[in-house]
From TrEMBL:
Entry GO CC: plasma membrane
Superkingdom in the source lineage: Bacteria
GO molecular function (one): dipeptide transmembrane transporter activity
Presence of the UniProt keyword Cell membrane in the record: yes
Membrane topology: Multi-pass membrane protein
Protein name per Swiss-Prot or TrEMBL: Peptide/nickel transport system permease protein
Length: 319
């Protein structure tokens, strides 16, 4: 048992490392082929030639391409993401500050979407073809279709402007207390969670319907096992593979794809940081944040693969 699991982990780690290496080449290459002089774009058209040349030297723009790539990758390997020329601060410090907002937001959103979606998927699958199933899946379809930024504006109007229950935007910082920080993340988390919950509920329902047609489910029912037990203990566990896949993808999306929501609620998170870095052509920040997000996706996928093996031990042998 131990050897197949070790081989499973080793294979996934090697795939993850290869993915990071290829991603680093793609990210670095894309940044290099962008048109324009980064120093000129950062300092402006009226910058002095001496200042432009100094910035080019600091950015290493005169070094060979392979040298700059190896220096950058070598720094990433030891946790040195470089220094932002716009913020005059280490990139790793900027990322740490913004992660303090984006990571709790992503986790709260993921928890909300999971708590909503799995019971709705179970409820709908257990009532397949009935009115309740049609209503639940119709509501989920609306949730998929509605843009999250429009939903965010609606939430702001109802809960911040009209009812005045939560702030409309901004982030007070964790130094002011945990509850004020969480309170400022509630509306953004809901705006992110509900569309994701709609997707996850539909996937959960489809996976459960496929499992409910299996012979062992019919056998369990024939033995008189309670319907709730059949659904929760047998059907749901065997339907978790596609659900876990979507959960992993959703976490990566919630961490990386919050640019619009963070701008709507004026949150100083990773999405806002990368948006500002792109507009200011601060390439070292863009490269560092993108590689962090790629690494997050790789780690999340590894954890999902491990969850696969725990849910279905047969996968350890197959892989």
């Amino acid at each position: 048992m131990a050897f197949p699991m070790t081989a499973f982990l080793l294979k996934r780690l090697l795939i993850g490392l290869a993915t990071l290496l290829v991603a680093s080449m793609v990210v670095f290459g894309v940044m290099e082929v962008l048109p324009g002089d980064p120093a000129l774009l950062m300092l402006g058209m009226n910058a002095a030639p001496e200042a432009l040349e100094t910035l080019r030297q600091q950015m290493g723009l005169h070094d060979p391409l392979i040298v700059r790539y190896l220096d950058w990758v070598g720094g990433l390997a030891v946790g040195d993401f470089g220094r932002s020329y716009t913020y005059s601060s280490p990139v790793i410090d900027l990322i740490g500050e913004r992660l303090a907002v984006s990571l709790p937001l992503a986790l709260i959103s993921l928890a909300l979407s999971t708590v909503i979606a799995i019971p709705v998927g179970l409820f709908s699958a257990a009532r397949r073809g009935r009115l309740a199933d049609s209503i639940a899946m119709g509501t989920a379809q609306v949730g998929v279709a509605i843009p999250n930024f429009w939903f965010a504006l609606l939430l702001i109007y109802v809960f911040a402007v009209w009812l005045r229950l939560v702030p409309a935007g901004g982030f007070p910082g964790w130094a002011g207390g945990i509850w004020p920080g969480i309170k400022s993340l509630i509306l953004p988390a809901v705006a992110l969670a509900l569309p994701q919950a709609a997707i996850l509920a539909r996937v959960t329902r489809s996976a459960l319907l496929e499992v409910l047609g299996e012979d062992y489910i019919r056998t369990a029912r024939a033995k008189g096992m309670p319907r709730r037990t059949v659904l929760w203990r047998h059907a749901l566990r065997n339907a978790m593979i596609p659900v876990l896949t979507i959960l992993g993808l959703q976490f990566a999306f919630l961490l990386a794809g919050t640019i619009i929501i963070e701008n709507v609620f004026y949150l100083p998170g990773l999405g806002r940081l990368i948006f500002q870095a792109i507009t200011q052509r601060d390439l070292i920040v863009v490269e560092g944040v993108v590689m962090l997000l790629v690494a997050t996706v790789v780690v999340v996928n590894l954890l999902v693969d491990l969850a696969y093996a725990l849910v279905d031990p047969r996968l350890r042998v197959r892989t």
